[in-house]
């Protein structure tokens, strides 16, 4: 069996170690900070396969395959890891505040209703207030989507890590600075503490994956998209049905707090929360739920999601190099795509056929 080194301790890297472990391969994960210390640990955790970049389109198949894999993991992973990551079904309500927005939601619902396991219904204002009486009276309607789920992302990645370690994976702290080669094959991962030998390596550093372009001489244009989330002590009732408008959302999570966000900022590698983002998020929240004016801010977080120029995933072998793979580019849906990305890369390393078509996500498209 090959020795595999995985660079990055987010959901994509940890899931790769988990699925390699399932096949009897012991992987080494090298993380510069801590498991799920960045976007994987600060995401909202919604599992929405029916919207987002490339949906409908090239991401639709892998999105729904990811959703099904999460459902399967919700049955097995808590027992394997001993960690309850709060997987649950949840209604999702998308609001419209004018006729143009309403038309857009209804058009999307036509496609969503054709997807197995999901259904939508259009609600007039009276129906919105039956879902939650705090919804703004200015909303002209909304689409209620049945079949969605969510989870607590930090606990989920810890569960994958715990299960992977039981299967033989090792997590090390270190800063990766390069790769070693023999001809065109990767033979080691260079860290500040020395070289970790390997037969295969996986680059899963999220938005920092672009640094590997210098190591490989191959373009891997992955960039950070900053997003911020507020957690609030909010007046009752709880927002049990996730409420969204445009790219904004609000829902009460398992910790009893109202989570609301998010921003999409091109701010380089700055991970600090900002007052400007806080104000933008609160403005969107109050448009959806005006009664939240009295909510108390408990915590504000910021993270950097990895995005590619075309908004699609980058999964597969790095062109020109044997044994070197990349797994990144999930943007705002890293938690949803992460497990399937990990299983797919494990299949590639093991010489197996992948369960989904990944030709559209070939990292060689950037060369």
What does this structure look like?
The structure is a single chain. This protein is α/β, with parallel strands linked by helices. Helix content is 29%, strand content 29%. The protein has 9 helices and 18 strands. The chain has helices at residues 11-22, 39-42, 60-81, 99-112, 125-131, 153-166, 212-216, 275-288, 334-349, and strands spanning 4-7, 27-31, 46-47, 88-96, 119-123, 141-150, 170-173, 176-182, 185-191, 194-197, 200-203, 223-233, 242-245, 248-252, 258-261, 296-307, 314-317, 324-328. Strands 3, 4, 5, 6, 12, 13, 14, 15 and 16 form a 9-stranded mixed beta sheet that branches. β8 and β9 form a beta hairpin. The longest helix has 22 residues, at 60-81. The protein is elongated, with a radius of gyration of 21 Å. The model has no long low-confidence stretch (mean pLDDT 96).
Oligomeric form:
single chain
- Average pLDDT confidence is 96
| Termini Cα gap | 31 Å
Give helix and strand order, one letter per element, not per position.
EHEHEHEHEHEHEEEEEHEEEEHEEEH
Largest sheet, in brief, is: 9 strands, mixed
Number of separate strands: 18
Task: Tell me the structural class.
Answer: alpha/beta
Quickly count the helices: 9
Classify the helix fraction into a percent range.
25-40%
Using only C-alpha atoms, the radius of gyration works out to: 21 Å
Unreliably modeled segments: none
Percent in strands: 25-35%
Backbone shape? elongated
What topology does this entry show?
Elements: E1 4-7, H1 11-22, E2 27-31, H2 39-42, E3 46-47, H3 60-81, E4 88-96, H4 99-112, E5 119-123, H5 125-131, E6 141-150, H6 153-166, E7 170-173, E8 176-182, E9 185-191, E10 194-197, E11 200-203, H7 212-216, E12 223-233, E13 242-245, E14 248-252, E15 258-261, H8 275-288, E16 296-307, E17 314-317, E18 324-328, H9 334-349
